[in-house]
């Protein structure tokens, strides 16, 4: 007895319907929060090294209060503002980080894109049960749209 070949129809049935939706919930697209998290006391120079090592554009800053984020551009602007000053490398990211919009994992990709554009942020924090559980950045969102068209 031979096993039937896997077809698109049989493989599609194994995935939850939401994963195959053209406008997926961000819970299917989000990345892990942990590798991007840094304490608010992290020095600017350390944050830049971490960004490079991770190959990302943002770090999530945890401290007292809401979750915030800092981008590579923010860090570089800080270093060069008013002329390059090496001492600025010792400043902490907590002073530079800004609040980031949050969304539930059930929010659809299209709504997340609208929020990014309206708020001028390239990063959203995904929150479930009042706790941050992941991140969605503009690159991941754009990649998910491109994948949709590649499958057609």
TrEMBL record:
It comes from the Bacteria. InterPro entries: CBS_dom (IPR000644), CBS_dom_sf (IPR046342). Residues 98-146 form the CBS domain. This is CBS domain-containing protein.
């Amino acid at each position: 007895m031979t096993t039937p070949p896997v077809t698109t129809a049989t493989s599609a049935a194994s995935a939850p319907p939401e994963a195959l939706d053209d406008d997926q919930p961000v819970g299917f697209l989000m990345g892990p929060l942990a590798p991007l998290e840094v304490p608010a006391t992290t020095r600017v120079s350390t944050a830049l090294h971490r960004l490079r090592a991770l190959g990302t554009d943002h770090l999530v800053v945890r401290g007292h209060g809401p979750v915030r984020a800092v981008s590579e551009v923010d860090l570089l602007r800080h270093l060069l503002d008013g002329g390059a000053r090496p001492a600025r490398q010792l400043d902490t990211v907590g002073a530079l980080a800004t609040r980031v919009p949050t969304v539930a994992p059930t929010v659809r990709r299209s709504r997340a894109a609208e929020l990014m554009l309206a708020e001028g942020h390239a990063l959203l924090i995904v929150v479930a049960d009042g706790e941050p559980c992941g991140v969605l950045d503009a690159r991941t969102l754009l990649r998910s749209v491109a994948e949709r068209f590649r499958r057609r």
